[in-house]
Amino acid sequence: MAGAASSNRQRSKIAPYLMILPALAYLAIFFVIPFWSLFRTSLSTSGGSVYLPTLTFAWDFANYGQALTAYQDQIIRSLTYAFSATVISLVISYPLAYAIAFKSGRFKNLLLGLVILPFFVTFLVRTLAWKTILADDGVVVHTLGSIGLLPSDGRLLSTSWAVVGGLVYNSMTFMILPLYVSLEKIDPRLLEASKDLYSSSFRAFRKIILPLSIPGVLAGSLLVFIPAMGDFINADYLGSTQTTMIGNVIQKQFLVVKDYPAAAALSFLLMAMILVGVLSYTRALGTEDLV
Amino acid sequence: MANQMNQGFNSQFASSRTSRRRFIGGSAAAAAGFALSGSFLAACGSNGTTNSSSSSAPPPDDGKPASGSLRISNWPLYMADGFVAAFQKASGLTVDYKEDFNDNEEWFAKNKDPLSRKQDIGADLVVPTQFMALRLKGLGWLNEISDTRVPNKKNLRPDLLNDPGDPGRKYTAPYMTGMVGLAYNKAATKRDIKTIDDLWDPAFKGKISLLSDMQDGLGMIMQSQGNSVSEPTMDTVQKAVDLVREQKEKGQIRRFTGNDYADDLAAGNIVVAQAYSGDVVQLQADNPDLQFVIPESGGDWFIDTQAIPYTTQNQHAAEAWIDYVYDRANYAKLVAFTQYVPVLSDMTDELNKINPKLATNPLINVPDADKARLHAWAALTDEQTQQFNTAYASVTGS
């Protein structure tokens, strides 16, 4: 009896490890190993044949310095675009998520469905559709021009506006859904209680809804900011030669120039910037335990 | 208004059936995927082993007719309707035809590691542009194409047969040639475009697109500076890159493109674009205002070639395919679709049988005066290619 009990206990000790094994193996193979080899590449020097270069690991930190000085414009631009896209996305999405969570009644599921609907169309086609909408000879540009919001030779496509707009459009669902989830969880009785205590609606929002929705704000911001930082499709299709982001540079370095150490160093710089951004953001919002 | 929108959408989709290199942008998305998977993993391994032999011997010829299946990897929209089916019927072979060759450099980045290990790349015949085919040949990754199995090789244009990069065309079988020049929308420019200087007209600020491919993008600019593409040096390339950078910083250049300039040109976002001749012939069908011109200072040729990788699973079938393509009647059907310049000689009769307009189109049957202004790039050394690509990418990719 005692032996059976202890083997049971042993089994229950092993079970959790067995359960995480597949995920752990998956991460080891598809994340840790590539991550490690990318790291080594970023510190290697490239030599030998042009097309099949031999990479020699050499603690070559100069790769980072060179990448940083050569592409600081693109790095700053990526940060600016990703930050703008996150803020704009938050400002647009919050009222919408609020309305769906509290005011939509029986249309709630329909509205949520509509939020997700654009994602049934592939990312590339959605982005290309914006090219048509914002075209120089298109309706939007003509209308804005005729009411004086755009100069006569002005354009929307191939500007920073279009790139940030594309980033916002393509990421809004990722902002709306976490916001909705965190807002929807809020107990309506808290609001009733606040009214009983003669709180104004605005005060109730500021003291109850906003603090309780912070996890949604945080999750949404991360889901928008991180992909936007590394994005290159929007800059490629909606931007011009003046709006290239760090993702475009990395793509070009990997596929055309084939300077793998430089491309890997840039990738690591990108990751480091995202990490610093995310950590300081979560710290500022005081929800480290959620990440 | 609705009509305008419709036109926009139509042009987007109309141009989607135009051209052979236009999926470059789309492939960028796919490229993102593999850049994060295979490419750098491979780059990190100790895969610096270069096959030093300059060529590979094909398997010994048993004299039997080709049989089995053939996997072809070609550019998108580079094939006539019904052509593959007709070949299957005539040869008894099964063809797995894929349009997954989107960009030379990206294709190379994706396939160089399996090729360096002599692993199958899923294609028995590929259609790289000549510079890429010669790179593959130099790395020893191409099989020789048997002359006896391709008797129709005699139909090849004599000027193509004697290429310095591949004398006698033993490894690379030209598929199509085309001109790189300027395409413009005359309704928007309101004047003729003749020279490279016209690109820098302040009236067209932000309405110009250049090709992101180094040779196609820089070739005509180097020629406008009095330099030659048949004897390029780092100095002459750098001079062209500097001019492009200057114009880019002024905001003159809107985009660096693959074939996707066609969309912008059709939609009016771009008024003058560096362009491939065949694209323009097809776009003209929808928009007669579009013109193609070889700059006065010169444009250049590109040649796309069929090549058999040394990892091919069916050498004879690939040769049977090339032979079938090199039959003039068959080839005319391809030209009627792609609208590029034939690589076979004496095509007029066969083209007339399909459509007399084809043979008289100066973009398909190029007049001698135009030919005199077209030049082909010299075969570059590996180091040159790398240096020139890096120099141009410092403008196009930043």
Fold and architecture overview:
The complex is a heterodimer of chains A (291) and B (398). With 291 residues, chain A is mainly α. Chain A has 2 domains: 2-42; 71-290, MetI-like (MetI-like fold, Orthogonal Bundle), CATH 1.10.3720. Helix content of chain A is 75%, strand content 3%. Chain A is built from 12 helices and 2 strands. A two-stranded antiparallel ribbon of chain A has the order 1-2. Chain A starts with a helix and ends in a 6-residue tail after the last helix. The relative contact order of chain A is 0.13. Helices cover 42% and strands 14% of the residues of chain B. In chain B, strands 4, 5, 6, 7, 8, 9 and 10 form a 7-stranded mixed β-sheet that branches. In chain B, helix 3 links the parallel strand 1 (69-73) and strand 2. In chain B, helix 1 (2-14) packs antiparallel against helix 10 (261-267), helix 2 (24-44) runs parallel beside helix 4 (104-116) and helix 9 (234-249) packs parallel to helix 17 (382-396). The model of chain B is unreliable at 1-54 (pLDDT under 50). The interface between A and B is large, with 57 and 58 residues.
